Each structure stands twice: as C-alpha cells, then as structure tokens.
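Incident review: delayed structure delivery

Summary: a single-chain prediction request sat in the queue longer than the usual turnaround. Root cause was a stuck worker, restarted by the on-call engineer. No data loss occurred. The affected request and its eventual output are reproduced below so the record is complete for anyone auditing the incident later.

Affected input:
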Amino acid sequence: MLSDQEILHTLDHSNDGYYSRFIPLNHPYCYLLDTRLNLFRSQDGWAIAAEILGYSPRGGSIELQIFYYGNCLINLEQYNGCSVNNSTVYPISEASYAAATAHGMLTHDATTLSIRGQEVALSHNKADYARAGIELVEFEPGSIDIQEAGRLLITEHQHLLRATDAELYTCIPPHLDKILVLDEWYHKDFTISSPKIMTEEDIRQAYDLNHPIGGLHGMSFETLRSTIRAQEERTNQQALQDWNENRPSSYETWQQLAKVLATGDPVHYNPTVMPTTHWSNWPESGEL
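Output delivered after worker restart:
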C-alpha cells in the first residue's frame, strides 16, 4: 500500500543527480517558458513527471526538460556515475531554429519554426506579445529575444511544445496510469543541500597555502578559523530555514498531491493558494 508520508519523504530527499534542485523553475541558466505536472500511479507504484520548457542561452536552444520522481523509475540516464532523474526533449528542429535566430534573438526576416515537423508562424508584432502579457525588452529597437518568442509560442501551440505520452513514459513503467495533469500549481524553489563543514586539517592546509604568498593579508590562523566557522554557521542556518519553509512536505501542494498518489483519487488535490508556476513569477530564471 502506498503511503503519502513515504512519498513526501522521497520528494524531500530527491535530487536530479547533479544540481540537487527540486523542479527547478528558477534555474539560473534557463529562462522559464512553461510548466506542466503529470502524476502516475499503480497499486504499488507512483511517479511524477514535471515538464519545464525553457530557453537555455548556453545551450542555444529551446528545450523541454522532464524531471522524474517516484518509487519505480526506469531507464534513468547516468552522469558522473550518478543516476540523473531528468531527460531532455528538443521539439524545435535544429535547422529551423538556426535559420530563425541569431545571438539569442529572432532574426528580422524569420517567419516560421518547425516544431515536431509542423511549420509554425512567428510573430514580430508587439501587440501579439502585449496581449499575451509579454513586455518586450528590446535591447535593440524592434528586437525580440528567444525567450519572449517562446513564451508567445506556448500560448498558441501547447500541444506541440509539451511532452507526448511516449516521452513522459521514458522513465516510467508502462503499467502506471496517468491520474492527474496540472498546468499550474503553487511551487517553491528548493535546493537540497547538506551541511558543509571544513575539517581542522582543511583549514590548516588553506592557511599554510595562502599565508606565505600574502593571500590572507596578514590574517592569523585563529582569525581565519573563526571566519570560516562563522560563515559555515550562517550557511547552515540558511539551509535549515530553507528546509523548514520550502521542502515539498512543508506546504500544501505536495501534501495534497502525495495523498492523490497514495489513494489514486484526484479529489484530494484542492488547493487554497494561488498558483506560482507562470514564468512571470520567476524573473531570475536564466539570468546567468
């Protein structure tokens, strides 16, 4: 029998195998465009597939990342010897993307993109963006950034830019049934972290390495030690506060969704707070 408390424990301690963020809507390397949440269940298995559509300036593409959580995941990719619970889909053809963009912006003569084999019109009309609540930055007069174009496209072509069932089931056993889909929900940014404590030997080595070359500006070993310990205390207090306030089990969304997964009944999801997953609520996403 599935337990909502076991599900919450798994979510609290889960990570993506590398960055250790729980459904990272505020990822500094990816502008958020759209989100969707998919819940799956069987008698003894559960899984969550969270879709994040974003524009990655470093990768130079609009990509759909699927983050998986559950007790029966399969086919997880490996990175640096760890299982990574996400996969990436590129719905826009590389050739059409390259032809329509340059330096992170739409080219002025770009008219279409090929999304999953379908030609989709691009807009250069400011009024279209305004109607969708998108305020153009225009670093150059008349310019449209890729994330702005993507945010307009998702309002018009959701079926092309969201994951197919085949893509969702990449890491989910086929006998699990999809029981709930959410296009928005109340979400908090949460980074899973553990206390970081330098050993006395580490501090001594740092002192011995830097003191002879003037890197510590005359600081004594004891002063260096107390400075490091104070910084550790501040960092760990912040991590504790984050754990208490932002971990999935600490708030309504995941408490209710855990009951949905444990019972198989979507009636347990009855939110009382406004959703926060729209891209406009995550202005720091992509800012690095």
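Verification: The longest helix spans residues 221-246.
Action items: add queue-age alerting; document worker restart procedure.
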